[in-house]
Amino acid sequence: MRELGGAALVGLIDCLCFKCNSVHVTAFNFKLRRGRPIVDQVVLAAIGAVLRGEYLVGQPFPSVRTIAADLKIHPNTAHKAVQHLIEERWLETRPGMGTVIADRAGTRRDERHQLLDKDLERLTARARSIDLDLPDVIDALTQHWNN
Question: Roughly what angle, to the nearest 10 degrees, separates helices 134-146 and 109-129?
Answer without folding.
Answer: 120
